[in-house]
């Protein structure tokens, strides 16, 4: 079959323009689901949550000790007076009423008795026993250095009823979920993760575990895509790999579209080779190109399109090209759809010279750390070619050099992004 792909030179657009075109191309509305808080770890909160109660819901003791009326515990010379022990109260008991010149033994978390205004911890008390049965019947405060109102957790001092507890679009962690549980909230509305279907392409691809034969390579992209997206608010569906054949490529893309995923990802087949069929296949299916190729390295051949309401992103097939495309196109798209703020770069001090002999935006494998002076520093790693995976396994960040940043020297401040 003759290759019908056009062979003409096209003007490349900048990374920033390409990303903006992608983010402006969709009308995808995230779905809201109700979820038990025990299953909400990592999900995005769909609504502001205001506290339904005061927390604590009542004044309670911060110590094991006694609850009493401060002005009755000391005389004018601030010396101790005996208070009669009236009763005991424990966490979970209903509140009691304190009588004049008495004290109530109180445990941590117990409701403060009515009329009591102070608590002193047990270590600062002297108990006086009944001579007949040796049971304590009175108490005095051995340490006079007390303040009125001490050791009481006031109602609403953590959060008042009706005030904002957790803001919309918060990515929930165990701290947030613990807070929700303390407010008595069992179910919340969260944004449903996006659905992403993906497949690799290429006659050369083998699954890990298969015998490696001549001309073949193992598929590392599928594993990376799945793991990356699972940490970036997407549920994934992996489809079988497509061979380098136009009709098979079209069939696999149609299968991906039938999953109703909001985003369809492919790896490979987007460049200018004789078997790079992705752009032609998408066009024949009815896709409308957003952009094809950008002034970036790695990942320059990236292809994006809309197919109905679904977004199609064809990533370049080399492993680091795929990783860059996920980090700098797919992740921003997902965050844009879900209403999350985009990840910002941080500044780091460059620890080695890096010379760029082209005017493309360059995404480099890098390792960032904190030096002895407490400053963030970064080293651009050797082995920046897009096929080289070992340096990527040592990287913990990307350093991004803009189109005009060609000579980069030790000590320069550069932009660092998370992997």
Question: What do these coordinates show?
Answer:
This protein is α+β, with helices and mostly antiparallel strands and 419 residues long. It folds into four domains: 15-31 and 193-338, MoaB/Mog-like domain (Molybdenum Cofactor Biosythetic Enzyme, Chain A), CATH 3.40.980; 35-55 and 157-191, Molybdopterin biosynthesis moea protein, domain 2 (Alpha-Beta Complex), CATH 3.90.105; 60-153, Molybdopterin biosynthesis moea protein, domain 3 (Molybdopterin biosynthesis moeA protein, domain 3); 346-418, Beta-clip (Beta Barrel), CATH 2.40.340. Helix content is 19%, strand content 30%. It is built from eight helices and 29 strands. The protein has helices at residues 15-23, 70-73, 174-182, 221-230, 246-258, 278-285, 319-338, 390-394, and strands at 32-36, 44-45, 49-50, 60-61, 65-68, 83-89, 102-106, 118-121, 125-129, 136-141, 152-153, 164-166, 187-191, 194-200, 205-206, 217-218, 234-238, 263-267, 288-292, 296-297, 303-307, 310-315, 346-350, 354-355, 361-370, 376-380, 397-401, 407-408, 413-418. The chain has a six-stranded mixed beta sheet with strand order 8-5-7-6-10-9. The protein has a six-stranded mixed beta sheet with strand order 17-14-18-22-21-19, with helices on both faces. Strands 23-26-25-27-29 form a five-stranded mixed barrel. The longest helix has 20 residues, at 319-338. Mean pLDDT is 94; it is low at 1-7.
Spell out the blueprint of helices and strands.
Layout: H1 15-23, E1 32-36, E2 44-45, E3 49-50, E4 60-61, E5 65-68, H2 70-73, E6 83-89, E7 102-106, E8 118-121, E9 125-129, E10 136-141, E11 152-153, E12 164-166, H3 174-182, E13 187-191, E14 194-200, E15 205-206, E16 217-218, H4 221-230, E17 234-238, H5 246-258, E18 263-267, H6 278-285, E19 288-292, E20 296-297, E21 303-307, E22 310-315, H7 319-338, E23 346-350, E24 354-355, E25 361-370, E26 376-380, H8 390-394, E27 397-401, E28 407-408, E29 413-418
Helix pairs in contact: 4-7, 5-6
């Amino acid at each position: 079959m003759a290759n019908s792909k056009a062979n003409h030179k096209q003007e490349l657009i900048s990374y920033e323009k390409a990303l903006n075109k992608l983010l402006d191309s969709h009308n995808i509305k995230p779905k809201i689901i109700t979820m038990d808080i025990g299953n909400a770890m990592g999900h995005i909160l769909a609504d502001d949550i205001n506290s339904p109660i005061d927390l604590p819901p009542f004044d309670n003791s911060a110590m094991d000790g006694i609850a009493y009326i401060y002005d009755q515990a000391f005389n004018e010379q601030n010396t101790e007076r005996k208070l009669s022990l009236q009763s005991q109260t424990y966490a979970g008991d209903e509140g009691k009423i304190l009588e004049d010149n008495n004290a109530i033994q109180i445990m941590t978390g117990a409701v403060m008795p009515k009329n009591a205004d102070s608590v002193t911890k047990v270590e600062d008390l002297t108990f006086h026993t009944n001579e007949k049965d040796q049971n304590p019947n009175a108490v005095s405060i051995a340490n006079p250095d007390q303040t009125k109102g001490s050791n009481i957790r006031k109602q609403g001092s953590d959060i008042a009823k009706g005030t904002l507890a957790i803001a919309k679009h918060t990515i929930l962690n165990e701290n947030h979920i613990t807070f929700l549980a303390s407010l008595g909230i069992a179910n919340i509305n969260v944004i449903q993760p996006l659905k992403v279907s993906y497949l690799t392409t290429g006659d050369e691809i083998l699954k890990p575990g298969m015998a490696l034969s001549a001309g073949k390579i193992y598929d590392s992209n599928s594993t990376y895509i799945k793991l990356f997206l699972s940490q970036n608010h997407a549920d994934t569906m992996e489809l079988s790999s497509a061979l380098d054949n136009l009709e098979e490529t079209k069939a696999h893309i149609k299968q991906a579209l039938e999953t109703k995923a909001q985003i369809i990802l492919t790896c490979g087949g987007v460049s200018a080779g004789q078997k790079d069929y992705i752009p032609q296949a998408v066009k024949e299916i009815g896709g409308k190109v957003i952009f094809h190729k950008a002034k970036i390295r790695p990942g320059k051949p990236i292809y994006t399109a809309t197919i109905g309401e679904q977004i199609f992103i064809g990533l370049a097939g080399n492993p680091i090209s795929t990783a860059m495309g996920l980090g700098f196109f797919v992740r921003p798209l997902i965050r844009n759809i879900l209403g999350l703020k985009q990840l910002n770069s941080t500044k780091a001090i460059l620890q080695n010279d890096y010379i760029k002999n082209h005017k493309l935006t360059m995404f480099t494998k890098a390792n960032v750390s904190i030096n002895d002076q407490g400053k963030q520093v970064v080293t651009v790693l050797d082995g920046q070619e897009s096929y080289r995976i070992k340096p990527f396994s040592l990287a913990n960040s990307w350093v991004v050099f803009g189109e005009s940043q060609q000579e980069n020297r030790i000590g320069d401040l550069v932009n660092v992004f998370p992997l």
